[in-house]
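Contributing new records

If you add data, match the layout below exactly. Sequence lines come first and carry their own label; structure lines follow with theirs. Keep one chain per record. Anything else will be rejected by the validation script.
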Amino acid sequence: MAYLAHVWIYDQNGLGIPTDFISFWATGHLALDGFPAQAFDWDILKRIEVAKLGQDFTGNFPWHYPPPFLFVASVLALLPYSVAYLGWVLASIVPYLAVMRAIVGHNFGVLLALAAPFVMINALVGQNGFLTAALIGSTLYLIPMRPVLAGICLGLLTYKPQYGLLFPIVLIAAGHWRVFVSATVTAIAMFVVSWLAFGTESWLAFFHWMPRSSQAILTEGQATWWKLQSMYSVVRYFGGTEQLAWAFQLVLTAFVAVVLALMWRSRVPYTLKAAALAAGTLLATPYLAIYDMVVLAIPVAFLVRIGLRAGFRGYELPALGGALVLIACYFTGTPTGLGTTLIVSILILGRAGSWWRREPALAVAAADSLPFCHEQRNKWRT
């Protein structure tokens, strides 16, 4: 582990290598020292990051998460930097692997979870893509049989609010009120607890600095367009204006929302509904960093589950292989995530078949595709 730390976390001079994780660790120290609101100030946070790493760096690693995520940062800051770094990657990848194993229903799910290049990217920079994928996957896995627990997972996802955009629409359309209420209560509880722990100032700072983050990332492109994988970023990458990019993104988001609302009200097997929502979550947001492409493993897992039980169609495995190759082209400096997500989405719609008939959903329609608990194992179909 010491060798790994010195080639991954520290440079040859023993100084910390600047990656996204330093923002978590530095923010945690500010929170523990009683100044959580200062973490949202880019200049203050960078000074702390430089001091902790022992060297300066170009650019910024800002903190723009809602205050509830300060709890995670605070825990990480209790540990030495290398231990926190490795511990965070391991602690977040375990639930991701477990969810992938559960969805696929076979140990192959673990191998599938580790196969994509964006898994390595997320681990190398110490980001939270594993946690995001685990929460989205857990929510979708649990909705049919454990709606309250599913809602809790969804409520925890509010630390990345851009990925919760479609869930309320779908839950209301499908009548999953227990999930909706549970998620709402969890989100409110997170707000209250973080407010009590970190004060009003932290929430005011979060909202105050949000426009700065949006300006820097979505208008000025400080994160560089090829590192983002949304429709918005692709249009900007190819030279489109901000207005044109927003137009394309809003049209795509609206289309995905309508398709998902209709699909979740239909008799399409739940497996496909879950896969579609996971993929749609990525298509709907304008801010999609490469490390959050880990979420794409969730819809792929649902498709693989179907294929292992009902057989793969002739084009599905080649298409999934092509998607894997396409996402690997990211290393050439090209934003290929959108194309990869579209390939997976088309495969899902191809499986959905006659979903557009909008037939009324039966009570068991949302609970007949996955064995979420042992006693229901024989009820599910793919």
